[in-house]
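Curious: why this fold?
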Amino acid sequence: MGWLSKFFRGFNDKVPEGKFYDRHSDNQGWNDPCTSEADVWTQHENEDIDRAVALSLLEEDQRAKQLFDHESQLKEDELLARALQESLTNASPPRYEYGNGLRSQPISIPYPTGHRICAGCYTEIGYGRFLSCMGAIWHPECFRCHACNLPISGYEFSVSGGYPYHRSCYKEHYHPKCGVCNQFIPTNPSGLIEYRAHPFWDQKYCPQHEHDGTPRCCSCERMEPRGTGYVSLDDGRKLCLECLDSAVMDTNECQPLYQDIQQFYESLNMKVEQRVPLLLVERQALNEAMEGEKHGHHHMPETRGLCLSEEQTITTVLRRPRTGGGNRTMNLITEPYKLTRRCEVTAILVLYGLPRLLTGSILAHEMMHAWLRLQGFRMLNPQIEEGICQVLAYMWLGSQLKCSSDEASSSSSSSGSSSSTQRGTRSPFETKLGNFFKSQIESDISPVYGDGFRAANHAVHKFGLRRTLDHLRITGTLPY
């Protein structure tokens, strides 16, 4: 006891050693009445004892309070250590249902200092594990894939549109697949997804398919997916089944189309008076005829049509071949046809086996060559001549697609359409194919055919076809 030790120290300091002194005389007197210093000590030391007791009690109270605070802190530390240990061994908090299911949209929620609010279920996160990502914190089971709605437990995930995804789910939804092998397009050595794509059909495919023998349709230019059928023509070209459906395969089959194009020219007041033979030929016959022609500019790398001015003997396709085993055409019958020069144009040749709209656009192009020669247009610049011929092919395609659209509208508005009307209506693919052929003309990058078309088409739009041709006849140039 601190106050007892202080009391005893005060007593030892103050108590005399048994001597009494007379305050009035130097002589010692044992019988004389006197006042002892013990009485004086009693009066003063009572006050010191009281102060000592009070001071000791105050010290004990402070020491007891410090002991209580220390024990309380130890208890809190023990609870915190136990919670941390449980967070490492126990499962995460249970899932919180909100509305119809767990919310997976990552939203940063403002919360007061000392509180952690889950961005998935919007409840406070207590002791235990939690995730901090995408600018918010989450219960582990509330951080879910936007595609499959399962928790994301891995260390890596993908984000698209502000939503988290498993990497496998993101790959399934957003990683491009090859239109040929139907596999995910692999990344290149730099880690980037590299693929080839058709600008019109939006077909993506692995780069190696351009060199592994994958067939490409000679008409629509699409790579053929694995497992789909196609036809291999006798001259080596490949034709997809959709393009084969409207393909023109022999000279006799092309005659009705030839008459339609002649009527189209008559509607423009550009009738071709002379009878010009039309022949469908194989690739080899077309190339041979091109070599025998002295004049004319040809679209490389492959020519699909030719307007001849020289006398030649041409091998023409007489009868439509049939499809045999191994996706090959069989029984192709040809015959020689001798051209006689009776006018400036001896024949028009078109490559066989192309869809009707493509065959017609080639025929319209070559018909314009014939019209220019028969009308006395001489020595035109190749860019101007090929450009104006492309304009006529483009105009014919546009008239065919417009006619098809009008027929579809009238047929849909009529409740009892006849079977003949239904047979005349083009399929959606054929309509898209026609738009593809128009797109080819528009986007051609060759200086002669592409730039020539754009210059001639601009002149026709500005001045009209008739004024453009009159100016061309007089000056040999396009009006501006």
Remarks:
- The longest strand covers residues 313-319.
- The radius of gyration is 51 Å.
- The chain has a mean pLDDT of 77.
